[in-house]
Amino acid sequence: MILSALLTSVGINLGLCLLFFTLYSILRKQPSNAIVYEPRWVAEEKSEQRSQFSFERLLPSSGWVRRAWQLSEEELLSISGLDAVVFMRIFIFSLKVFAFAGTIGVFILLPINYLGDFSDLANKSLDSFSISNVTSGSNRLWIHFCAVYVFTAFVCYLLYFEFNYISSKRIAYFYASKPQPHQFTILVRSIPVSSGISVTESVQNFFTEYHSSTYLSHSVVRQSGKLQQLLSDADKLNRRLVRLKSTNRARERLRRDGFLGLFGHKVDLLDYHEKKLQDLEDNMRIEQSSLVGKEVPAAFVSFKSRYGAAVALHIQQRVNPTEWVAEPAPEPQDVHWPFFSASFIKRWICKFVVVVTYISITVLFLIPVFIVQGLTNLSQLETWFPILEGILSIAFVSEVITGYLPSLILQMFLLFVPPVMLMLSSIQGHIAFSRIEKSSCFKLLGFTIWNVFFANVLSGSALYQVNVFLEPKEIPRVLAEAVPAQASFFIAYVVTSGWTGTSNELVRLFPLICNFIKRRLSGKAGDDFEVPSIPYHSQIPKIAFFGLLGVTYFILAPLILPFILVYFCLGYIIYHNQLLNVYAPKFETGGKFWPVVHSSTIFSLILMQIIAIGIFGLKELPLASGFCVPLPVLTLIFNDYCQKRFLPIFQAYSAEVLALFLSDQYTLSMLRAMQCLIKKDRDDQNDPSMVEFLNELVTAYRDPVLMPIQYSGRNDRNTSLLHAAEV
Amino acid sequence: MILSALLTSVGINLGLCLLFFTLYSILRKQPSNAIVYEPRWVAEEKSEQRSQFSFERLLPSSGWVRRAWQLSEEELLSISGLDAVVFMRIFIFSLKVFAFAGTIGVFILLPINYLGDFSDLANKSLDSFSISNVTSGSNRLWIHFCAVYVFTAFVCYLLYFEFNYISSKRIAYFYASKPQPHQFTILVRSIPVSSGISVTESVQNFFTEYHSSTYLSHSVVRQSGKLQQLLSDADKLNRRLVRLKSTNRARERLRRDGFLGLFGHKVDLLDYHEKKLQDLEDNMRIEQSSLVGKEVPAAFVSFKSRYGAAVALHIQQRVNPTEWVAEPAPEPQDVHWPFFSASFIKRWICKFVVVVTYISITVLFLIPVFIVQGLTNLSQLETWFPILEGILSIAFVSEVITGYLPSLILQMFLLFVPPVMLMLSSIQGHIAFSRIEKSSCFKLLGFTIWNVFFANVLSGSALYQVNVFLEPKEIPRVLAEAVPAQASFFIAYVVTSGWTGTSNELVRLFPLICNFIKRRLSGKAGDDFEVPSIPYHSQIPKIAFFGLLGVTYFILAPLILPFILVYFCLGYIIYHNQLLNVYAPKFETGGKFWPVVHSSTIFSLILMQIIAIGIFGLKELPLASGFCVPLPVLTLIFNDYCQKRFLPIFQAYSAEVLALFLSDQYTLSMLRAMQCLIKKDRDDQNDPSMVEFLNELVTAYRDPVLMPIQYSGRNDRNTSLLHAAEV
C-alpha cells in the first residue's frame, strides 16, 4: 500500500468519525431518541424533558465531550460499579503504554527506518517507514534492540502497577459493600439422592448435620425452562399494560388485532392484553404445580455468615469428589443457565465438546478471511470479475477497495462470532452471565488473535505456512518475514475498525434504526424497552486486540502507533459517555475482567519479542537476536509472579471475603461488625436490617418462576399470604 | 544383536541371580549379618538368636521365599503402613498388565512377526522377532492394530480399577487412624512482623483473634542448623554409651583414643564418652539460650480439631496472598528442611533455579550415555583401543561387551542421580522427607525416561535427530524408525539392570560389605545402626521405567515381554521380603505415590500409541495409522477423568479429612466421635486419652533441639519440671 492510499483511508474514516460525532450531537437532543442515547436516565425517569421544539436542538454541540472527559473514577464507580471502572482502566493503561511507545516510535524509530529522500512522498510505499527499510547488518538495528528492552520493561512496570491498583480497588470495594446474598450462598451440584428421599430432604439433612451452626436455608433447582418462557412473556405483557393504563388517551388504546396491528378488527388493547395475561397466568399456575416434582439434584444453599459459606465451599467435599460439588453462587439476578446440568459426567463431557467445537469454529472461520484477503488484491479481482475492470481502473475506487473494503467485510463476518462464543460458554456449564461473558472473553480473544492477526499475517505472505506452528523452531523466522509485510493492512484495520467502529458505538446506529422503525409502526415507542448492559465479552477482546497490534508493530512499523493512540483517546471519551448515559451494569464481578487484559498484554509482549528474535536474525544481526532470547523467559517469569501475587485476590471470591470479613466468624459478632461498617448510627443492641437481610436471603435464590403470580389486579393480601405460607 | 548374544546375556544374569539368591539364603542365617538382613527385628529385639553354630546354617534354603509370597496385604499394612502396600500394588498392577500383554505378545504377535524358517536360530538377529520383520503394507499389521486398541483398553481399565482400589484403601486408612499431630496442625510461612512484636506474639494475636474457638498452640520455627548437628552427635554418642553400659565385659570398654582406635593411649571408653557427651551438652545449652532470638517468620500452628486446622488451611489467606501462606504440616518425624525459607519471594526464586538446574543436569547427562553407546559398537572400540583387538575377537568377550557391559556402565552413572534429585527437591522448598521424595520421584522419572529411553533411542539410530522434538509433526515417524532398532539393547537392559539389580537389592551387597568392614575394625558392630527406610524416590521411577519399556515395546518387539514379566515376579518376591525384614517406614503419606505411577503409565501408553501411528505410516498402512490418532486423545481424556475423580482424594489432605471426620466439627462432639471410632470400649464421659493427645500436640512440633537436654544421668524430676514449665 502506498502512502496516498493510506491517507485516503484515513480521510474517509476521519470524515465518518466527524459525521458520527455531529450526528450524535444532534440526535441525542431529540426527545424521541432518549431511549437510544439516555436509556439509563429514561429508566430512572431523570431524563430532561425537552418536548418543546427549539432551534438549538438542531445544532451540534460538544458539551457531552467535556462531561465525559471530566467524569472521575469515583463517580463512575458509584454509577456503574467496579467492572466499569476496570473497563475504563484498560483505556488508561493502553493510553500510557502507547503514549510512551508512540514517542519512541515516531521520534526515534521512524526516522531511523526512513532515512531517505522526501521526494514523491505520496507514492512512497509504507514499507519505507518500517524496519524492512533498514539495510541488513546495519548498526542502526541496535537502537531497535534497545527499544525492545526498554518497552518490555516499561510495559511490565505498568502491568504490575495496574494489577496492584485494581486489586486494591477490588478489596476496597468489598470492604465497602453491603451484605449481598451471593456472598452467603453456594451452589451445590451432583447431590447424591437415595431412593425415597427428595433432594430437598437430602440437602437439609446434609447441611443441618455438618454445618448446623451456620446453615440457613436452601432452594433446590428445578427444570423450569417452559415456565421461564411463560414468565418472560407475562412480564413483557404486564409492562405494556402498565404503560397503557398510564396513558389516558383512548385513541392509542384502540388497535387492529391482526398482523402488526394493520389488519383485523379494532379492539380495546387494554381489555385484549388483560385477557391474554390472565390466560398466561392460568397456564403458569398449572405449570408451577406440575413443577414441584421436577427437582434437579442441585441446590443453592445459604448460610448465616460469609464465613459459613466459605467453609462449606472449601470443605464440604466428600470422599467421592464428584459428589456435592460446590461453587460460589452468582448474584441472584446474574443466574443464567440455559444448559444447566447437575451431573458431573455430563458437564465434563460438555466441556470437551465445547473445546472441540471452539477449535473447529476457529479453524473453519479462516475461509471467509481468505476471501477477504483476495479482495485486497486488485489484479485477482479483475481476473475473477472481468466486468469490473473499467470501474476498478478509476483511482479513487481502487483506493477505496484496497484501503477500506477488506476490513469492513471482515467486520461483518466478525459480528456473528460473539453470540456463538456466548453460546459455547453457556454450554460449557457456566451458571451466570458474568462467568459466561468472562469465558467468552477469553474465547473471543483467542479467536480474534488467530483469525485476524495470524490468518492475515500468514495468508498475506504465504498461506501454506500455517503449518509453521508444527515446527516451533521456525516460528520466529516465519513471523519476522510475514508480520512486517502486513503492516499497511493493519494500519487500515485500526483506522476502519477502530476509529469508525468506536464512533459507531457512540451513535448506536442499529438501536437508533430499530427505535425509528418501531416508533413509525406502533406510534409510540418505549413501552417495553430495556436498559442495555455493556457487552464486555465482545468489547474487551476488541480493545485488547488493538493493544496487541500496537505492541507487535512497535518496532516493525511504528507508523501504526499514532493511529492506535488516537483510537484509545476516542475510546476513552466515547465509552465514558456511554457508561454514563447508556449502559447499566447487569452484574458486578468486582473487576474479574482485568486478568484477561493482563494475559493478553503478556501474550502481545512475548509475540513482539519472538518477532524481534526473528527479525534480528533475518537482518544478519545474530548477536542482537541471541540477546533477545532471555526476554520472553523473563516476561513469563514476571507473569508467573504477578499471577501468584494478585490472581488469588481475583479468583476465589470466598477465600478473600474471609480475609476481609474475618471478624464475621460467628454470626452474632458478625452481625455487629457488619452493621458497624454499614451504618454507624444504628444502635447495635438488635440488628433489624441484618435480620431482614437474612429473611430476604431465604428467598433470594428461589426460582423466580416459582414466586406467587400477581399480575392481574388480584388482592395483594392474597399473594402475601401465599408468600408467607411458603416461607 | 543376534539371538545367541542375548542368550549369553540372559545366561550370565540368570547365573548371577541364582548366585545372589543362594548367597542370601546362606548369609541371612549368620547372626553377624542380622543387622543387614533383619534390621527391623534387631531393632525390635525380636530377631531369633542363633548364636550356636549348626551345619544347617551353611545350607541354602527357600523358606523365606514362601514366607514372602504368603505375606498378605493386611499383614503388610500393619507392618509397614499404606505406602508399602501401594508400593507392592505397583508390582501387582504391572504383573496383571504384562501377563495380559505377554500372552498376546508371545502367542499372537511374535509368531506373526517371525513367520520364517527356524534354521540357524542362534545367529538370527533379534529383529526377526520384531515388527520390522513384517513386510510393508501386509494385512498382518491389522492384528497389531487391534492389539494396540485392546491393550490400551485393558490398561485403562486396570488403571481405573487400581486408582479406585487405592483411593478406598486410603480412605479406610484414615478412618482407622488414631488422631495424629499433623492432622491438627498447619505450617504458616511469610508471617508479616511489625517492629516491636515478636513472631510468637504475632502468631498468637492472629490466631486467637480469628480462630479463637479452635486455636490450640503454636511453635515458631528457629534457625537451629548448628544445634541440630550437635544434637545428632549427642544422640549417636548416647546410644553408644547405652550399649557400652549394657555390655558388662570390661575388655571391650578399653580402647586406644587415637586414629580408628589403633593408636594412642588406652582409655576407659565409658568415661571417655561420658566426658565427651557432657561437653556436647554444655555446648548445646549455650546454643539453645542464644537461639531464642533467632526466630524465623514461620510457625507450626496446632488446632483443637482437624476441622479447625482445615478451615485455617483453606481460609486464612489474607488480602495479600503472599503473606500468611499456609500448608498442611507433615508428621513431626517427617519434618526435614535443610533449605527452609520463610520468605515467599525466596522460595519462588528457588523454584526457578531448581527448574533450570534440573533441565541442565538432564541435558548434560547425555554425554556419559553417549560414551556408553559407543561401547556397544565393537568396531568403534577397536579403532579407539587397537590393543584390545586380540581380546575383542574372542567370541565370549565380545558377547559380554555387547550384551552386558553397556548397561552396567549406565547403571554406575545413574547411581549418582538420585541424591542430586533429592537435593534439588529440598532446595525447591519442600518441608518433609515424604514430599521431597515424591518430588524427586517425578524428577527422576523424567530424567530416566529422557536419558535412558530417548537418549538411547535417538543416539543409537541418529544422534542428530534429538532436535526432532522441535518439529512435533515428525515425532511419530522418527520414533517409529528409531525405537524398534533399540529393542535388543533394552532387552539386555531389562536382564542386567532389572534382574541382577533386583537380586542385588536382596543381598544388599553394599551394606553387607560395610558391616563386614566395621565388624573387623571395631570388633563389635551394631552399636549405632539405624533401620533403613525404602528409598521410594529411586525405586519407583526404576520400576515405572520397566513398565514404560514393556508398554512401548509391546507391539514392536514382544520378545521383551517375558523378560519384563520375570522382572516383576522377582521384584514382587524380593520387595515383599525386604519390606518384611529390612525396611521400616520413615513416614506415612497414605499412598500419595500412586499418582506418580498412574501418570507414568498414561505417558507410556501415549508414547506407545504415537509410535504405533508412526510405524503404521512407515509400513504403508496409512488407514491404520489414521485410526490410531484418536487413541492418544481418548487416553488423555480418560486420564483427565481419573484426575478429576480420584486426585482430590490424594491431594489436599485436610479437605478430605473433613469429609471423613465431618462430625468433628466441634471439639466436644469430635472428641466423642473419634473416641468411638478408635476405642469402642472406652466410656465417653471424659476422654483422658484425647486430652492427653492434645497435651502432646502442644509439643509435637517443637524443634527437637529445643527440648530439655537429659543425657548424662541427671535427675529426671529436674527435666520434667523444666518441661512442665515450658508447657
From TrEMBL, chains A, B:
GO molecular function: calcium-activated cation channel activity
CSC1/OSCA1-like N-terminal transmembrane domain sequence ranges: 5-162
S-adenosyl-L-methionine keyword on record: no
Domain CSC1/OSCA1-like cytosolic: 183-338
Membrane topology, as annotated: Multi-pass membrane protein
Recorded GO CC terms: plasma membrane
Intracellular or extracellular location(s): Membrane
Transmembrane stretches, start-end: 6-27, 97-116, 141-161, 348-372, 384-405, 412-433, 445-466, 478-499, 543-575, 596-617
Domain of life, per lineage: Eukaryota
Keywords: Calcium, Coiled coil, Ion channel, Ion transport, Membrane, Transmembrane, Transmembrane helix, Transport
Every CSC1/OSCA1-like 7TM region domain range: 351-616
Entry's family note: Belongs to the CSC1 (TC 1.A.17) family.
Protein name, entry field: CSC1-like protein HYP1
Native source species: Camellia sinensis (Tea plant)
Lineage of the organism: Eukaryota, Viridiplantae, Streptophyta, Embryophyta, Tracheophyta
